[in-house]
Design goal:
Distance between the termini: 75 Å
Number of strands: 9
Order of helices and strands: EHEHEHHHHHEEHEEHEEH
Radius of gyration: 26 Å
Strand content: 5-15%
Structural class: alpha/beta
Strand order of the largest sheet: 4-5-6-7-9-8
Largest sheet: 6 strands, mixed
Helix content: 25-40%
Shape: elongated
């Protein structure tokens, strides 16, 4: 094994499995393969005459998917990034699970993006890497463009695997988070109300890795409060937005001339601009992730909890029940 690795050799222009493998080496392989994070990347179809994977390794040249090296997956039944993860002892790292599954699916089955939708395929990572390889002459630049995306994904998955579960558990203990259920149209709806400045936690709470919440009501430290839902659950929010707008107007001593059904309308309603009903995402936003030009709601969080319980328990307007 070399004292320092100065080159990484790949056999073709970089595809997702190779890029994921390079990411794993640069992120986790520095101790085992010193210098690998800064190593220059070159393309070789075959090894120089008289050289082997072992002889090149001693010279600081690491072979990926070429030259029958330990990282040549051909004939192994595995893909490159899987071999690298096993070598580095990170196969079972929760924050890498999706990335490794993606690389395997793309390499072994050609299904980096399963969706048949033309936009999903064009703008999925596999489609974008393919487009980069067709338009960008410098293959090293392709890798440099994609690596920060993998880094961002890894950081977010690490938060989801370790930080968010701890944060939420702590909030349950100190009373700044609450979980309850209501029934709407005979279906159970799991609701979580919490105080947090973490922009990612609502998504995690709705996910299968999190609490599988159907509705998340999150208030940040400035008082802005947003209500997000799981799209596939189709939670009806019309009574909820009407109740919130009415409560907001009453607390701020504003007189509304519109009807209850007018208060159910999507978008903004005159007189209560604090609440935006977004039908596209099925959410009710008091400022969203980056509030500008909007006041935080004046409704106490305890009151919002009661409104959630009452409004979401009602049959949808016009249901005839």
């Amino acid at each position: 094994m070399a004292g320092k690795y100065t080159k990484i050799i790949i056999p073709t222009r970089p595809h997702p499995d190779i890029i994921v493998g390079i990411f794993l080496l640069s992120k986790f392989g520095q101790e085992k393969y010193p210098g690998v994070a800064q190593a220059e990347i070159e393309i070789w179809q075959q090894l120089p005459e008289g050289e082997t994977a072992e002889s090149l390794d001693k010279k600081g040249v690491l072979l990926l998917d070429v030259g029958s090296s330990k990282f040549d997956h051909h004939g192994s039944g595995k893909n490159l990034s899987q071999l690298i993860a096993e070598d580095l002892g990170i196969t079972n790292e929760p924050s890498l699970k999706k990335m490794l599954n993606y690389a395997q699916r793309d390499d072994k089955y050609g299904l980096g993006t399963i969706s048949t939708d033309i936009l999903d395929k064009a703008f999925g990572l596999s489609g974008l890497v393919a487009a980069l390889n067709k338009t960008e002459q410098d293959y090293q630049k392709v890798i440099k463009i994609v690596l920060p995306l993998l880094e961002a994904h890894f950081i977010e998955e690490k938060r989801r695997a370790y930080e968010m579960p701890k944060e939420f558990e702590k909030k349950l203990e100190n009373g700044t988070a609450e979980v309850f259920e209501v029934k709407q149209k005979g279906k159970k709806i799991k609701i979580i109300v919490l105080e947090s400045d973490n922009l990612s936690i609502a998504g995690w709470l709705k996910s299968s890795e999190g609490l599988k919440a159907d509705v998340v009501c999150q208030r940040n430290s400035q008082g802005f409060t947003n209500i997000l839902t799981k799209p596939l659950k189709n939670v009806d929010l019309r009574w909820l937005v009407a109740y919130l707008r009415k409560a907001e107007a009453e607390i701020r001593d504003r007189k509304l001339t519109c009807s209850t059904f007018d208060l159910m309308k999507p978008g903004k309603v005159d007189g209560v601009s604090e609440w935006y009903y977004d039908r596209a995402t099925n959410s009710i936003l008091n400022g969203g992730a980056s509030p500008k030009g909007i006041l935080p709601t004046a409704i106490p969080l305890e009151t919002i909890k009661e409104i959630l319980k009452e409004a979401l328990s009602q049959d949808p307007p016009g249901s005839g029940k």
